[in-house]
Amino acid sequence: MTRRRLHDLVLECDLDDQGCMARYFRSITIAGEGDESPERWRIVAGLAEHRGTTSWSFRDMTVSVGDGGRFEARAGRVVAQVDSLGRTVRVLDQHHETATGTERALSIVVLALILQTHGRFVVHGALVRDDSGGVALVGGSGVGKSSTALWLSKVGFSLCGDDTFYLRIEDGIPIARAVPQPVHIDPRSLHALPELRGRLGERYGEKKRVFSTPLDDARLPLGRVVWPELGAGSSTRLRPATGAWAWIKLIEASIFAGEPAFPRMREQLDALAMVARRAAHYRLILGEDALQDPIGALLPLTRALSSPASAFGG
Amino acid sequence: MARKNTKLQPTDRAHFAMMEDGTGVILDLTTRRYIHLNASASQAWAHMLEKGGATVEELSAVLAERFEISEKQAKADVAPWVSEMRKRGMVSSR
Asked: What residues in chain B have their Cβ under 8 A from chain A's Cβ atoms?
């Protein structure tokens, strides 16, 4: 067993009006705490009040560091496990559909911390795929990422995972992989997907509910990124976005990005820059037609999404 | 104003990314603000990174060659840009 020193973890998260994390971490402080045993350590995260900010206090969280850098973190029902190469990830236990916001936040924190030490960088977004590889749907909470991912699953794409995916660079190519998380969605978005209505689970926040979907955690070359936004006007449309714009947005959507206290911070920024450069980026402006008939609104756009102009080698 | 032989280099506060179209963005890790660079400024920044530092004259020469302009003209652009980057804490003298 490797002796590792872990520390107090204090984190502050902005919440949006649905109780979701609008931006994952406003600030993160890591302070020293004495080792309690060579095999298990307790991370105590303090509760800090901050204007406009809600923080969580995590207590009784234990982290085990096994041979070869294998990690396991537990807190209540939450379990996060990563093998020594960061390949195997398990975030929540079988009760994950009913995870509280605290448990969910904890799982993301632990996941991101552990994965980042392995050069895997967590991004807030959904992931779908087609024969050409992965398409990430990235943006803030409530812009329509999950809904768009589900709608795209009706027009030739398949859903890999919702809310969070992780990114690494392999041989100069950005590779995305979904993280096991239930889908969080406003039920009003499901009028075009009536088959999903019966599968809705617990409430999540004020408006959203969750349901599970089979996870596709294949490693996918990430050649396309879609940025949904709620726009004015009647028609849903795609607009190309520049790499510079995308890099800034990717930083905002990534956990710990640009936080000097965290490991491999510059490597993370470079990985995001690689995505900004190598992928085709589209702003998906959701018009009024997407509210009425999202499948019909998206169908004409799938051709552009399926043949990215700046995908690898293209 | 940098002296003639003063080597300038990016500070630890700055993290730079160059884009496919030759433009670039600097993230100021202290303020979390972004600075957009046009193609010539990106070229100058990339040169500073590659060489571990460069003088205003060296940067002017690189841009003059790259963009086929006179060194005098290049220097007229580079000098105030460098001054601005120094003011923002993005470059320092070595």
From this structure: 15, 17-21, 23-25, 27, 29, 32, 34, 36
